[in-house]
Amino acid sequence: MNKLWSGRFAKNTAEELELFSESISFDKRLYLFDIRGSIAHAEMLNSIGILTDEEKVMTVKYLNKIEDEINSGNFDFNIKFEDIHMAIESRLIHLIGDTGKKLHTARSRNDQVSLDTRLMSLFEIDQIILLLKQLRYTFVNIAKDNLKTIMPGYTHMQRAQVISLAHHMMAYYSMFRRDYLRLLELKNRILDEMPLGSGALAGSTINIDRQMVSDKLGFRNVSSNSLDSVSDRDYVIEFNSDCALIMVHLSRLSEELILWNTKEFSFINIADDYATGSSMMPQKKNPDIPELVRGKSARVIGNLVQSLTLIKGTPLAYNRDFQEDKQSLFDSVDTTKSSLSIICALLENITFNKENMLKATQSGFLNATEAMEYFIKKGLPNREAHHLIGKAVAYCIDKNKQLEELSIQEWEEVSDKTKTLIGSEINDILCIENCLNARNSYGGPSPDSMQVAIDKAIKELKQL
Fold first, then answer.
1. CA atoms lying within 13 Å on the CB side of residue 357
2. Is residue 5 over pLDDT 80?
3. CA-CA distance, 165 to 243, in Å (whole number)?
4. I need a surface site. Which of 49, 245, 357, 436 has the fewest CB within 10 A?
5. Distance, CA of 296 to CA of 331 (rounded, Å)
6. Residue 10 vs residues 21, 138, 447: alpha-carbon distances, Å
């Protein structure tokens, strides 16, 4: 098969080179975007007189026919075509003859692939944004049902203070909200720039209308430097980065679900149809979904490193190295989408063991900060109050008691300073339920504060 670019060559491409250099086996997923770009390009070529009206109509008609052939599985993705761009163009020429040979006027595969990858990325970002919206709704729904579900909050994996399950879920809502905002920024700031017309690297002497193509494809901007336009892969790196961070956040959530599912925590039960068993140990019920998501995050992080390393030593402008940007990006997109979807389904098939969560707050002195702040409100300086409660905790450990179990006499035994400050109300203040209710500052875990956060989140999600 003669290549469309083979005029300068006396020999056909070696089979070994064709096998090594082909990309059609993976870039064929760009076909829809390649056809969209080609249709817009054909309409522009018609507007400047390169294609007649009849030729334009024929070109667009048969590009749509090629799309139908691909959709129906009747298209030959032979590696001899090298890539999706050459495959579609070759098929078009086969269908309409010399008219098809005009389509590549004033464009190169260099700007063509940049256009296709940008269009694909814009499409996939919208898909991921929808999945993030669904996941955030899931966190909100769990939070709505658990405003008063008390659980320990942790620092350094040690029980630290009393929070609610609602507060914990809405922390993840905030985390994935940032992921949404990052994708939105990538879409509007980096990706929304039309590169077609940059040619191989220096544009064209033909008076093309790049703005027309940009408008037809729905871009806000036209790339301002043809040299940069064909060699820019920042958007690939940023998309990989955003996917990697989403996967890291999913991995953090997965780690907690794995811990909560252990007998040591027993905070959750996973529905049977969302867990797996052991081939050897009949008693096992394993949290495979969060474990797999945790593992898949490593691959997406690797994709980010691959895309960064790919361009680090490439001079301007286009280099064939850039062919290797797609597999990592495609994998990041696919893995992120599937992981978001399965984690959302998993969360909807989890039962929370509220009694065990509450029980876990009743040891470990999770009300120590409330005790300290009680004495601060009584006028004791922060550092003195901190020292006093530290001594009280040591006393409780020695006596095998909790802070809320100490009598007034025992408080006075801990420190003389408590005599003029402490009152009988301290036991109510140190009650675990009251500790939660008292944390009413904006962003805090009290039911009132969380209701404000949930209402705000619902309003925000409805506007998306």
1. 25
2. no
3. 27
4. 49
5. 10
6. 19, 62, 78
pLDDT at 417: 86
Q: What is the pLDDT of residue 418?
A: 87
Closest CA to 120 of 191, 39, 43: 191
- Average pLDDT (299-327) is 96
Return phi, psi of residue 159, to 5°.
-55, 130
Strand pairing category for 193-194 and 221-222: parallel
- The pLDDT of residue 464 is 86
CA neighbours within 13 Å on the CB side: how many for 450? Answer: 29
Residue 77 in contact with residue 25, Cβ under 8 Å?
A: yes
* d(C-alpha 232, C-alpha 31), whole Å: 21
Integer Cα distance of 174 and 460 in angstroms: 12
Instruction: Give the integer Cα–Cα distance in Å for 73 and 71.
Output: 6
> In 3D, which of 431, 429, 411 has the Cα closest to residue 420?
411
| pLDDT, position 3 | 65
Residue pointed to by tokens 């004791």: 380
Q: Is 314 exposed, middle or buried (0-12, 13-18, 19+ CB in 10 A)?
A: middle
Mean pLDDT computed over 305-325: 95
Burial class (CB in 10 A: 0-12, 13-18, 19+), 355: exposed
Do 192 and 125 contact (CB within 8 A), yes or no? Answer: no
List, by residue number, the catalytic residues: 156, 278
| 22: pLDDT strictly greater than 60 | yes
Of 151, 155, 168, whose CA–CA distance to 358 is shortest?
151
58 contacts 96 by C-beta, under 8 angstroms: yes
CA distances from 265 to 358, 359, 363, 380 (A): 11, 10, 14, 37
Check pLDDT > 60 for residue 21: yes
Which residues 6+ apart lie within 8 Å of 9 measured at CB?
Answer: 3
Does residue 366 contact residue 283 with C-beta atoms inside 8 Å? Answer: no
From 197, 201, 229, 191, select the one nearest 213 (Cα to Cα). Answer: 197
Residue whose C-alpha is closest to residue 435's, from 402, 399, 394, 412 = 402
Structure pTM?
0.94
Cβ partners under 8 Å of residue 167, min gap 6: 143, 153, 444, 445, 450
Cα within 13 Å of Cα(364), Cβ side:
18
Which tokens hold the place of 160? 């630290």
Residues 347-360 pLDDT 10s: 999 999 999 999 99
